Structures are given as C-alpha cells and as structure tokens.
Amino acid sequence: MNKAFIVLQREYLTRVKKKSFLIATLITPIFMLAVTILPGYLATVDDKESRTIAVIDETSLFLNNLPETQYTKFHYLPVEQLQSTRNSLGKNNYYAVLHIPANILTTNKAEIYADKQVTFDIKEYIQSKLGTEIERLKKAKIIAATGMPDLEQKLEKTRTNIDLSTIRLDSSGNAQSGSAEMSMVVGYIAGFMIYMFIFIYGSFVMRGVMEEKSNRIVEVIVSSVKPFQLMLGKIMGIALVGLTQVAIWVIIGAGAMTGIKAFYANDNIAAVQAQNIMSSNGVVQEQMIQQAPAATHSNEAITHIFSMIDNLPIPLLIGCFIFFFLGGYLLYSSMMGAIGAAVDSEEDAQQFMLPVTIPLILSIVILVSIAKNPEGPLAFWTSLIPFTSPVIMIARIPFGGVPTWQIILSMAILVATIVGMIWVTGKIYRTGILMYGKKASWKEIWKWLRYNNY
Amino acid sequence: MELLQAQNIEKNYAEHRALTDVSISVEEGQVFGLLGPNGAGKTTLIRIINQITAPDNGIVLFEGRPLRGSDVEKIGYLPEERGLYKKMKVGEQALYLARLKGLSRHEALKRLKYWFEKFEIQTWWNKKVMELSKGMQQKVQFICTVLHEPQLLIFDEPFSGFDPINSNMMKDEILELKAKGATIIFSTHDMASVEELCDHIALINKSKKILDGKVDDIRNQYKNNNFEITYEGNYGTISSNLPNEFQIIDHTENHQVNTIKIHHEAGHTNSEMLAALLPYAEITSFREIIPSMNEVFIRVVEEANR
User: Fold this and answer.
1) Does one domain contain both B149 and B234?
2) Structural domain boundaries, residue B184
3) Which tens digits make up the pLDDT trace of A415-433?
4) pTM score > 0.80 for this model?
5) Min Cα–Cα distance to chain B from A435, Å
6) ipTM confidence
7) Contact A451 B13 (CB under 8 A)
C-alpha cells in the first residue's frame, strides 16, 4: 500500500500545483456569486433610452393622465390618426402606438403597436399605469355612489399580511425555527455540488487513466505497482484534490459569512444613528424616512437568513456532504476509471460514459421534486439506491426530517456497492490498460472479467 | 546457476492461446534473447515474468523459489510499449518511477545524478517530457529501468526508435550492465544485435517454444554445408568443370581476390570438394559459412509454419 501512497502523492501534487486548479478554485465561487447576483443587478439598471409613445385614446379618459418618466413620454393623437401613425411607424419619431379602445373599461384590453419588439419594461409600465388609472376611475365611481369619501382609506386598513413561520420540532420536541425554502435551496445546492463533483472529478480519473494508457507509461508503472494500487492511488489522490477544493471554499464561505454578519451588525447601528440624526433635521426628513425603514427591513431579512442558516443541521450536513461526495465519487470514478482503461480514444469513451452516467443525470433531474417532497416514496427509494443516493440524500438532509436509520442504511448500501464495484472495475481496469488498439465493446469487457490476473 | 526459470507456462485469452507449455531457463549473468515473430507470445511471457499478468498454468521461479510480489524491485523492465507522462518534468518523473521501484528519495536522487552526468543530460532535469525528442525520451526510460540496479533486466525491443548512434550506445550500456553482473532478457527482431549481445536464445512461434539453446550452438546446428572459398584463377573454368554434387551459390570476382560460395550435398566431404577445385584454382582461404541468426530465424519459423 506504500506504493499506492506514492501514486496518490503524484496524482495529488501534479493537480494541485497546476495554475488551473488555483484559478478554478477561486473563479468558481466568484462565478456562482455573479450568476446569482448579476441578473438581479442588471434588472435594476435603468433603461436610459428616450422614447415617445403615441397614444390614441378612444375613451378620452386617459388624455394627459398617463404619468411620464424622464425617458418615456406620451404624445396624445386624435383617433383618426391611428391608421396613419401605425403605418408610418419607423419613419415617424414614435417608438410605438398605444391604442386604447372605447370599451377598455369592460374588456380590460388595449393594444400596443411597434415595428420592433416592445421592451419588457415599457410593456410592464404601460400595463400598470393603465391599470392604476382604470382602478382609480372605478374606485371614484364607487366612492361617489356610496357617498363615503374615506372609503379607500378604510379599505386600506383592512389589508392584512400573514407572516407564517414554519417551526420544525427536533427529536426532543424543541422548537427550531426553520424555513422550507432555505432547506430547499441548501439541499438543491448541496445535491448539485455533489453531482458536479462526481462528474468533474470522475472524468479527471478517466482522463488520467486514458493518459497513462495512450502515453504507454502504464506498462512501465505496472511492472512496479499492482494495477489495483495504481488505480486506488489515482482515485484517492484525485479525491483529495476535490476535498482540498471544498475545504478552500468552506473557509472562504465561512470567512465571507462572518464578514457579512459583522458588516450588517455595524450597518444596523449606523441605520439607527442615521435615523436619530435625521429626526433633528426637518428638511431631509421626509425623503430619508422613506428609505430608512426599507434599509432596516432588508437588514432584518438578512439577519433572518443567517438565523435560518444557523438553524440548519450544519455538522450533519457537512459530515454527510463529505461522506456522500466521497462515496458517490468512488462509485462513479471507479467506473469511469475502468472506461478510461477500456478505450483508446475520447470518442470511444462516449458510448460507455452515457449508460454509466444516466443514473447520475436522472438524480439531478428528480432533484427538484425531491426538494418539494423530501419525505415521499420517490425520495425514500432514490436515497437508498446507491447510484442516486449521493445526490438525493444530501438534498434531503437540510430538511432535518430524515430518520437516522435511513441515513445509515443508505451509507451502508453505498459502501457495499462501492466495494463490489471496485472489484469488478478493478478487473476491467487491469485487463484494459494493457490492451492497445483493440476496440472495446461490452462483450469484450465481459470477457475481461473472466481473465486471470493478479 | 539459474536466476529465472519459467516452467510449463500456459496462458489463454478468450479467442486465442498466448502461450502453450513454454519453459525457459535464464542463467545468472547471461544475456538471454527472447525471439519470435510478432504476436508469438513474447510480450505475454515477459508480462508474466513481471507479474503484470498471471499464467493459467505453470510457475515462474526466481532464484530457485516461486516469484514473489517484492521481486518487482529486483527486476527492471523496459517494455516495447513505453512512454512517459508528457507534462511531467523529466527529473520529477525519474524520481517517481524510482520510488515506485522501492528506492528512497535520497538514494534515487544520488543515482539519478550519476546517470544524468554519465549521459550528459543534466540540463534536461527541469524540462517537460514533451519537450524531448523520442530518442531523448528513450534515454530517460533506459535510466529509469536500470536505476534501481536490478538483478534481472528485461528489454523488449530496446532499439526501436533509436538512431544508429544511440542504439550503439544502448548496446554498450547493455554489455556494461552484463559485465557488472546483471542478467538480461532481451527481446528483439534485430537479429544482428542478437548475434552481438546474446549468449542464449529461445524462439517462440505461435505460442510454442520451437528453439532453445546457446547462440553459437544453434548457428552451428543450422549449418548448411555452405563454404566460402577465395582463390586465384578463372571462374569460368571452375564453373564448367566442377562436378554436380558441388553447387555454386554465389561468386564475386575482384582484381586480386575471387570469392566463390559452394554448397556440397550431404555425404561429400570437404576434402572431396577441395580436391575437385584444386586443378582449376589456387586456393587462398577456405571457411565454412555459419548461418546468421536472421537465416536461422526465417528458416525455423517457416519450417514451423509449414
């Protein structure tokens, strides 16, 4: 086994010392952050293009009543000009023509004509402004009919928002504040990460084996190391690379969390102070007061998120993540190692990769429904089947309701399958790495299983 | 004393038989040539000796006892299909392979220094393998094979891919290793190098051993009653007057020295042949032609396949 360790060292060091490893490790969190934050950020960036929209209002109710913005202007035209303005779109200066039909109050329908796709924001804007205006008209009518001028204010007071907190009881009956959404998000992310890891590091193993085979170095090496030790050293070395990457991310993540927590703690104090100062200054007060509650509100949300994260079963989650990551990786990478040994080229590898990875892909497909119903029969069975359990079980853990016996059973089945799988793939590997120029087929591989090797 | 004995080795693959009852015996200090056409089973036998694959039947003895796992450290193997990690640095790679053969890092470094100086390739240490030419890579592989100073060295087609200068250097290295007491199994298609290097050969054809013995004995055994005679005289007179039992296979005429190659049929003696020649030629030299290993190889394999 000493020699397997020398192999492990090489596999680990050559990969960790590569610049691409460092870059991938640092870039991935930034990329993930960008993917989550960027769309939200882009949505808040204002559209700075000036547009004038011609309005043909058959009802005359909206004449000069639609609020304009700095960039979106309305120009009201007589009804007769509808056809001509519409036809000359693109030649005149109008961005679009808004046609408000006479029966809008009963049909709630209007049209907008443009010679190109109307932007989403414009559509939204017009929809909401038309709606508000119609609502106002209808309300005015009702208020006039009832003779209660403060009807609207009274109705406004009846508006109620329910804050439903989900409280999970732990085994001893203690209440734990938790959030189904949070568990779902964390479960999905954890499941997806395991899926990615198995895929990425599994194909590292495959490509490593293929490299050794196609470089013809393998025969030199197996004259000093048992093929099994070589395979084991490689798989373990690459697993360590993966764990190193996870460790770096956990450290970065924990650091970032503490940082954000500290930042918001300060921010809360600052917000309170700001409010105190503002109240003594009458001029800016009105404007600031609108913002201050919004700020404290978002702070509350973040504190809430943190408390939810704190309430996740973190140690169990991390423990299971490492176990199922390693387990799933061992299972799949031993198969991918055998594929790498069996084939001569990347193209040949594809025909074997697909059937092997189908359960893995399947588990990511059903992950969404698992997250919706983490205790259902689908969740139960797929978290026991070793080919899907690494991804599914880890997605169930954050909900906290998985019985211990299920976790242990799932782990035991996984370990037993790994042992069996390594025995089988080890045989394929030993024969395959020394078969040059022979096109592997399932039939051929079946024969290899019966060869006499050490 | 025998360092290595393979006894009654048999190995089957799904569709074909790679080795049928093959036994070889390699004495200590010998250079043993393992010959045979492509696909005969040589590489399978070599892999069995290296414990890369197991025989279905038969046993391999090393120093008189069954081969053990730890014996890989006493064997150095340069396979026919050989390569290196392309992106790894030469020095690191040599160190890695040496450690896999059981050398400590310290010892491996010391010995690598010696070999890199000997081959004058110190500057390669930090180069990546892919920056080296094929011949350069072969040198590195050779060093990796011999670095742990194994008792038994196995070279499978060691000269393929070498230019004549480098393959001569390799031959010298092999002879030097032999002089230092190493036992060498050597598989090749280059029969000239077999004559130069090997003491003993075994020839495998279609999974069976069909010839085994000392190189000199085998060549003598396949003598064909062919003789080379240099003479002064007229070729025309000789060829028209020589009795039929003596066939001229070849002849060359130079200004001073004429050479003739004659085959005499079995049952005739050399004296009879010379007596028949004497009236027409002044003989300056006479020697029996011993067949080259190349001729022996072709003859034996063709006979076996007939």
Assistant:
1) no
2) 2-220
3) 999 999 999 998 889 888 8
4) no
5) 11
6) 0.80
7) yes
